Amino acid sequence: MYATLAASALSAGVSYYASEKQADAQSKYQKEMREQNIEASLDAYRFNTTQETTRMIQEDTAGNQEIQKSSLRRREAAGRALASSESAGVNLEALMGDFLRQEGDFSSSIQQQMDWKKQQSSASMKGYAAQAKNQIASYNPAPVQGPSLAGAVAGFGTSALGTYFQYKPPKADAPQKSKGG
Question: How many CB atoms lie within 10 A of CB 103?
Fold first, then answer.
């Protein structure tokens, strides 16, 4: 009887210990997965924002180059106009005013496009931040169920009672069942 109780107690203890270790391992794994999820989300955010920033620098540079080309074309046209106006008697001031107006219109249009692209880029950056936050928040594993000490004690108690009733001597006043008859 005592050996059975000892074996039952040992089994309950080992089972509790194994469940506790398994719960600890599961909790550690979930923590590692969460950290990896956070790192991957932040890496994606950094990559996307770096790409967006690079794109905007390239767009801005291209826009400024267009404005510079327009200015160069105006100066070249002004030089040609100056050379031909002396011989043709054309009003140089009117030509220069027209060239400046056209260049201003073109530059204004390019600048407006660049501003719109910057606004779109800003919205994209906010979207990348929201996406990273949502990805981090979406990792929500089920809570780890640890072992129950009360359950282990109850299991041992049940086993002990079963053992007790199995080996309990019969009461003296209870009628004994005869074997075989």
Answer: 18
Element counts in the chain: helices (H) and strands (E): 3, 0
More confident residue, 102 or 175: 102
How many of the other CB atoms lie within 10 Å of CB of 144? 15
Measured distance CA(17)–CA(147) in Å, rounded = 8
Structure tokens at 47: 């990559």
Q: What is the pTM of this model?
A: 0.61
Give whole-number Cα distances, 70 to 5, 15, 40, 108, in Å: 97, 82, 45, 11
Give the span between the Cα atoms of 39 and 95, in whole angstroms: 61
Radius of gyration of the chain (CA): 43
Q: Do 151 and 12 meet the contact criterion of CB atoms below 8 Å apart?
A: no
The long-range contacts involving 25-32, CB below 8 angstroms and separated by at least 24 positions, are: 26/144, 27/144, 30/141, 30/144
Low-confidence winner among 24-28, 39-43, 94-98, 137-141 (lowest mean pLDDT)? 94-98
pLDDT digits (tens, 9 = 90+) for 125-148: 999 999 999 988 888 877 777 766
175-to-132, 170, 171, 172 alpha-carbon distances in Å: 77, 9, 8, 8
Residue 28 host element (H or E) = helix 2-88
More reliable by pLDDT, 18 or 175: 18
